[in-house]
Write a structure and sequence with these properties.
mainly alpha, about 70% helix, 2 strands, two-stranded antiparallel ribbon
């Protein structure tokens, strides 16, 4: 007996015939069409305000800046699909960044050793989250909120609260942080590879179908023989691995291990991108395509506000507003009753 969850291609709630998009756009889904429209609007608006905004060099800056957020948003989408959440991803990036730089320095400039250590720590951190949630029976939000504080403190303890090491004298780190392949930054290629791999897993494998099933109805999934605990632990381990990769890229981009700077606030960006991209916070729905569109939208918006010299505090306001907007839209589409109001 097998059970399948909501298809990745139907991450959006069905709409009435009148609201159905034209057939040539039907494969995109209403959510993605809305994101594309918003992205085009942002590009046109800031392009009119600043002649250099749409330049190739600025587009590359946006892509590089969005890479780390994109990696975290992809795995955040996966964990949300199966009914979980990980608020600690930003702190995990900080730990991995510090470890990669410190082990690189202690190992006599061995970049691969530093990266392997960072990935190893990422696996351990992810497994700790998963084990606490599954066997400690702790709500994922609470467990990873604790992880947010604990891993941030660990990164600061390891680094004494300061940037560690210097990696820009190493060809491997320089290639990761500043190299290009076929005109695209290496960081962007890494994002593309991870996104493609996760998309294939979700859409074309039994693993993906089981993840949707777990998020859609965990009781039915358990009765169908799906080993939910195993899947949840594996998903959080995957988050740890990808967060470690993001931490390595942060080290390569900044030139040193960063315990907090560059990683703080990434959890909010990742969750916002996943929610905007159509991942239902109750689980069972979502897709990588929508998440990447949302990452692009957030990256273009943030860059545009920066180029126009708008106070960075307003960027946090905008991110919070977008997250609330995304959740409100989800609730309305799902027909959820407003809390405290009559049905």
């Amino acid at each position: 007996m097998s059970i399948t969850g909501t298809s990745p291609d139907t991450a959006q709630t069905a709409v009435s015939p009148k609201a159905t998009p034209p057939k040539r756009f039907a494969g995109l889904g209403g959510q993605n069409i809305s994101l594309i429209g918003a992205l085009v609007l942002v590009l046109v608006l800031f392009g009119l305000l600043n002649d250099n905004y749409l330049s190739l060099s600025n587009m590359q800056v946006i892509a590089e800046a969005a890479t780390i957020t994109g990696l975290l948003a992809i795995v955040q989408t996966v964990v949300i699909i199966c009914g979980g959440l990980d608020i600690s991803v930003g702190s995990q990036v900080g730990v991995a960044s510090v470890v990669s730089a410190m082990v690189f320095t202690a190992g006599g400039g061995n970049a691969l050793l530093g990266m392997a250590a960072a990935v190893g720590v990422g696996v351990v951190v992810g497994l700790v989250n998963g084990l606490v949630i599954v066997y400690g029976r702790v709500n994922p939000t609470i467990a990873t909120l604790a992880g947010l504080a604990a891993y941030k403190g660990l990164a600061q303890l390891l680094s004494d609260g300061r940037a560690q090491g210097y990696v820009l004298n190493n060809d491997v780190f320089v290639f990761l942080g500043r190299g290009k392949i076929a005109g695209l930054p290496v960081m962007v290629w890494i994002l593309i590879v991870v996104a493609a791999a996760v998309h294939v897993m979700l859409k074309y494998t039994d693993i993906g179908r089981n993840l949707y099933a777990i998020g859609g109805n965990d009781t039915a999934a358990r009765l169908a023989g799906i080993r939910i605990n195993k899947y949840l632990i594996a998903v959080y381990a995957l988050i740890g691995i990808v967060a470690a990769i993001a931490g390595i890229l942060l080290t390569a981009r900044t030139g040193s291990g960063q315990p907090v700077s560059g990683s703080e606030g990434l959890e909010l960006k990742a969750i916002t991108a996943a929610a905007l991209g159509g991942a239902a916070l109750k689980g069972g729905k979502g897709g990588i395509g929508g998440t990447l569109l949302a990452v692009a939208l957030l990256g273009c918006l943030e860059n545009g506000l920066t180029v126009e010299g708008i106070n960075t505090f307003w960027q946090n306001v905008a991110q919070g507003a977008l997250l609330v907007t995304a959740v409100v839209i989800q609730q309305r589409r799902n027909g959820e009753r407003a809390v405290g109001l009559p049905t």
